[in-house]
Amino acid sequence: MNIKILFIALSFISLKKCNSQKADVFEETNGFIVVEAEDFHSQELDEIRKWYRVDENNTPNIQPDIDGSHAASASGKAYLEILPDTRTNHDETLVRGENFSNKPGKLGVLNYKVKFNNPGKYYVWVRCYATGTEDNGIHVGLNGEWPESGRRLQWCKSQNTWAWDSKQRTKEEHCGIPKQIFLEIPEAGLHTISFSMREDGFEFDQWIMSKEYDISDSIQNF
Ligand SMILES: [Ca+2]
Ligand SMILES: [Ca+2]
Ligand SMILES: [Ca+2]
Protein backbone atom coordinates (compact mmCIF):
# COMPACT_ATOMS: atom_id res chain seq x y z
CA MET A 1 0.00 0.00 0.00
CA ASN A 2 1.51 3.31 -0.97
CA ILE A 3 1.55 6.23 1.43
CA LYS A 4 -1.32 8.09 -0.24
CA ILE A 5 -3.72 5.13 -0.07
CA LEU A 6 -2.69 4.46 3.53
CA PHE A 7 -3.40 8.08 4.42
CA ILE A 8 -6.86 7.98 2.77
CA ALA A 9 -7.67 4.71 4.57
CA LEU A 10 -6.62 6.12 7.94
CA SER A 11 -8.62 9.31 7.36
CA PHE A 12 -11.69 7.25 6.54
CA ILE A 13 -11.30 5.15 9.69
CA SER A 14 -10.89 8.19 11.94
CA LEU A 15 -13.84 9.98 10.27
CA LYS A 16 -16.02 6.92 10.76
CA LYS A 17 -15.01 6.68 14.40
CA CYS A 18 -15.79 10.34 14.88
CA ASN A 19 -19.21 10.02 13.25
CA SER A 20 -20.26 7.02 15.29
CA GLN A 21 -18.97 8.22 18.64
CA LYS A 22 -21.33 10.02 20.99
CA ALA A 23 -20.22 12.51 23.57
CA ASP A 24 -18.99 10.58 26.57
CA VAL A 25 -19.52 13.41 29.03
CA PHE A 26 -22.23 16.05 28.72
CA GLU A 27 -21.90 19.49 30.27
CA GLU A 28 -24.46 21.60 32.07
CA THR A 29 -24.39 25.34 31.40
CA ASN A 30 -26.48 28.14 32.92
CA GLY A 31 -28.46 25.67 35.03
CA PHE A 32 -29.72 23.65 32.06
CA ILE A 33 -28.81 20.51 30.14
CA VAL A 34 -30.67 18.47 27.50
CA VAL A 35 -29.50 14.98 26.49
CA GLU A 36 -30.77 12.46 23.94
CA ALA A 37 -31.82 9.27 25.76
CA GLU A 38 -30.08 7.16 23.10
CA ASP A 39 -26.72 8.78 23.94
CA PHE A 40 -26.34 6.91 27.23
CA HIS A 41 -22.90 6.03 28.57
CA SER A 42 -23.70 2.52 29.82
CA GLN A 43 -26.54 0.15 30.64
CA GLU A 44 -26.77 -2.25 33.62
CA LEU A 45 -29.20 -4.83 35.03
CA ASP A 46 -30.50 -5.57 31.54
CA GLU A 47 -31.01 -9.36 31.72
CA ILE A 48 -34.79 -9.23 32.27
CA ARG A 49 -35.65 -5.99 30.50
CA LYS A 50 -33.30 -4.06 28.24
CA TRP A 51 -33.31 -0.64 26.57
CA TYR A 52 -33.13 -0.96 22.77
CA ARG A 53 -32.34 1.81 20.32
CA VAL A 54 -35.05 2.52 17.74
CA ASP A 55 -34.20 4.71 14.76
CA GLU A 56 -35.25 5.13 11.15
CA ASN A 57 -33.03 2.27 10.02
CA ASN A 58 -33.55 -0.06 12.94
CA THR A 59 -36.53 -1.41 14.86
CA PRO A 60 -35.59 -4.10 17.39
CA ASN A 61 -37.32 -7.40 16.80
CA ILE A 62 -38.18 -8.06 20.45
CA GLN A 63 -41.65 -9.42 21.19
CA PRO A 64 -44.13 -8.77 22.59
CA ASP A 65 -44.28 -5.11 21.56
CA ILE A 66 -47.72 -4.02 20.42
CA ASP A 67 -46.92 -0.73 18.74
CA GLY A 68 -44.63 0.25 15.89
CA SER A 69 -41.73 2.65 15.60
CA HIS A 70 -42.09 6.31 16.57
CA ALA A 71 -38.60 7.23 15.35
CA ALA A 72 -39.74 9.63 12.63
CA SER A 73 -41.13 12.07 15.20
CA ALA A 74 -38.45 11.53 17.87
CA SER A 75 -35.69 14.05 18.54
CA GLY A 76 -32.60 12.98 16.60
CA LYS A 77 -34.92 10.50 14.84
CA ALA A 78 -33.99 7.96 17.53
CA TYR A 79 -35.10 6.86 20.98
CA LEU A 80 -34.88 3.95 23.45
CA GLU A 81 -37.60 1.46 24.34
CA ILE A 82 -37.42 -1.05 27.19
CA LEU A 83 -38.51 -4.48 25.96
CA PRO A 84 -40.16 -6.92 25.90
CA ASP A 85 -43.46 -5.27 26.88
CA THR A 86 -45.56 -7.98 28.51
CA ARG A 87 -47.99 -5.66 30.26
CA THR A 88 -49.76 -3.16 28.02
CA ASN A 89 -53.01 -2.72 29.95
CA HIS A 90 -54.51 -3.22 33.37
CA ASP A 91 -55.91 -6.67 32.51
CA GLU A 92 -52.49 -8.18 31.84
CA THR A 93 -50.62 -9.67 34.79
CA LEU A 94 -48.34 -7.38 36.76
CA VAL A 95 -45.10 -9.20 37.61
CA ARG A 96 -42.93 -7.25 40.04
CA GLY A 97 -39.25 -7.40 39.13
CA GLU A 98 -40.16 -8.28 35.55
CA ASN A 99 -42.66 -6.00 33.78
CA PHE A 100 -42.93 -3.54 36.68
CA SER A 101 -40.59 -2.21 39.37
CA ASN A 102 -41.87 0.32 41.86
CA LYS A 103 -38.37 0.16 43.35
CA PRO A 104 -35.83 2.23 41.40
CA GLY A 105 -32.42 0.97 40.29
CA LYS A 106 -33.48 -2.66 39.92
CA LEU A 107 -34.15 -3.15 36.20
CA GLY A 108 -32.81 -1.56 33.02
CA VAL A 109 -30.48 1.07 34.47
CA LEU A 110 -29.11 3.66 32.00
CA ASN A 111 -26.17 5.84 33.03
CA TYR A 112 -25.16 9.27 31.71
CA LYS A 113 -22.05 11.22 32.72
CA VAL A 114 -22.56 14.94 33.23
CA LYS A 115 -20.16 17.68 34.20
CA PHE A 116 -22.06 20.20 36.29
CA ASN A 117 -20.74 23.74 36.57
CA ASN A 118 -23.54 24.92 38.86
CA PRO A 119 -24.47 22.67 41.80
CA GLY A 120 -27.89 22.80 43.42
CA LYS A 121 -31.45 21.65 42.81
CA TYR A 122 -32.44 20.56 39.28
CA TYR A 123 -35.89 19.54 38.07
CA VAL A 124 -35.80 16.50 35.79
CA TRP A 125 -37.97 16.43 32.67
CA VAL A 126 -38.37 13.47 30.31
CA ARG A 127 -39.81 13.23 26.81
CA CYS A 128 -41.71 9.98 26.43
CA TYR A 129 -44.23 8.32 24.10
CA ALA A 130 -46.96 6.49 26.02
CA THR A 131 -49.47 4.32 24.21
CA GLY A 132 -51.22 3.00 27.31
CA THR A 133 -51.41 3.21 31.07
CA GLU A 134 -48.73 0.57 31.68
CA ASP A 135 -45.80 2.07 29.78
CA ASN A 136 -45.64 5.54 31.25
CA GLY A 137 -43.43 5.34 34.34
CA ILE A 138 -39.66 5.62 34.99
CA HIS A 139 -37.28 6.53 37.85
CA VAL A 140 -34.25 8.83 37.95
CA GLY A 141 -31.22 8.66 40.27
CA LEU A 142 -27.87 10.30 41.00
CA ASN A 143 -24.46 8.70 41.61
CA GLY A 144 -25.91 5.25 42.34
CA GLU A 145 -28.55 6.56 44.74
CA TRP A 146 -32.27 6.80 44.15
CA PRO A 147 -33.77 9.59 46.26
CA GLU A 148 -37.51 9.80 46.87
CA SER A 149 -37.63 12.90 44.63
CA GLY A 150 -36.51 10.81 41.63
CA ARG A 151 -39.09 8.05 41.96
CA ARG A 152 -42.17 7.40 39.81
CA LEU A 153 -42.06 9.96 37.00
CA GLN A 154 -45.53 9.70 35.48
CA TRP A 155 -47.39 10.70 32.29
CA CYS A 156 -51.16 10.73 32.03
CA LYS A 157 -52.23 13.22 29.43
CA SER A 158 -50.71 13.39 25.94
CA GLN A 159 -51.01 9.73 25.06
CA ASN A 160 -50.00 8.49 21.61
CA THR A 161 -47.62 11.39 21.06
CA TRP A 162 -44.21 12.48 22.31
CA ALA A 163 -44.67 14.55 25.45
CA TRP A 164 -42.45 16.32 27.96
CA ASP A 165 -43.42 16.04 31.61
CA SER A 166 -41.99 16.27 35.11
CA LYS A 167 -44.51 14.91 37.61
CA GLN A 168 -44.34 12.42 40.46
CA ARG A 169 -46.98 9.73 40.87
CA THR A 170 -48.23 9.45 44.44
CA LYS A 171 -50.84 7.27 46.15
CA GLU A 172 -53.26 10.17 46.16
CA GLU A 173 -52.49 11.55 42.68
CA HIS A 174 -51.88 8.84 40.09
CA CYS A 175 -51.38 11.39 37.32
CA GLY A 176 -48.48 12.96 39.18
CA ILE A 177 -47.66 16.16 41.05
CA PRO A 178 -45.55 18.93 39.43
CA LYS A 179 -42.23 20.12 40.92
CA GLN A 180 -41.67 16.93 42.93
CA ILE A 181 -39.17 15.32 40.53
CA PHE A 182 -35.71 16.77 41.16
CA LEU A 183 -32.09 15.92 41.99
CA GLU A 184 -29.74 17.82 44.27
CA ILE A 185 -26.28 18.15 42.69
CA PRO A 186 -23.99 18.41 45.73
CA GLU A 187 -20.98 20.07 44.09
CA ALA A 188 -19.59 21.12 40.72
CA GLY A 189 -17.84 18.37 38.75
CA LEU A 190 -18.60 15.01 37.19
CA HIS A 191 -21.77 13.16 38.24
CA THR A 192 -23.70 10.14 37.00
CA ILE A 193 -27.38 10.58 36.16
CA SER A 194 -29.25 7.28 35.88
CA PHE A 195 -32.71 6.21 34.78
CA SER A 196 -34.31 2.86 35.58
CA MET A 197 -37.44 1.05 34.47
CA ARG A 198 -40.73 1.34 36.30
CA GLU A 199 -42.93 -0.03 33.49
CA ASP A 200 -41.87 -2.04 30.44
CA GLY A 201 -42.58 -0.64 26.98
CA PHE A 202 -41.52 2.84 28.11
CA GLU A 203 -40.29 4.91 25.13
CA PHE A 204 -37.60 7.41 26.08
CA ASP A 205 -36.52 10.18 23.68
CA GLN A 206 -34.71 12.90 25.68
CA TRP A 207 -34.21 14.23 29.18
CA ILE A 208 -33.55 17.64 30.68
CA MET A 209 -32.24 18.90 34.00
CA SER A 210 -33.14 22.50 34.69
CA LYS A 211 -32.88 24.83 37.66
CA GLU A 212 -36.09 26.49 36.45
CA TYR A 213 -39.15 24.26 36.50
CA ASP A 214 -40.63 25.96 33.41
CA ILE A 215 -38.66 24.76 30.38
CA SER A 216 -41.09 25.88 27.68
CA ASP A 217 -38.81 28.69 26.49
CA SER A 218 -35.78 26.40 26.25
CA ILE A 219 -37.05 23.78 23.83
CA GLN A 220 -38.92 23.91 20.54
CA ASN A 221 -40.97 20.75 20.68
CA PHE A 222 -42.40 21.18 24.18
CA1 LIG B 1 -43.86 -0.41 22.25
CA1 LIG C 1 -45.77 -2.20 29.81
CA1 LIG D 1 -33.86 10.97 20.86
In terms of DSSP E residues, the strand content is 35-45%
**Total beta-strand segments:** 15
Helix content: under 10%
The sequence of SSEs as H and E is HEEEEEEEEEEEEEEE
- Assign the CATH superfamily: Galactose-binding domain-like
Number of domains: 1
List key phrases describing it:
222 residues, Jelly Rolls, binds calcium ion, seven-stranded antiparallel sheet, 15 strands, mainly beta, globular
Overview of this protein structure:
- The protein has 222 residues and is mainly beta.
- The protein has a single domain, classed as Galactose-binding domain-like (Jelly Rolls, Sandwich), CATH 2.60.120.260.
- Helix content is 8%, strand content 35%.
- It is built from one helix and 15 strands; from the N terminus they run αβββββββββββββββ.
- The strands form three sheets. Strands 2, 4, 5, 7, 10, 13 and 15 form a seven-stranded antiparallel β-sheet that branches. Strands 1, 3, 6, 8, 9 and 14 form a six-stranded mixed β-sheet that branches.
- Bound molecules: calcium ion (3 copies).
- One calcium ion is lined by residues 36-38, 74-76, 78-79, 205-206.
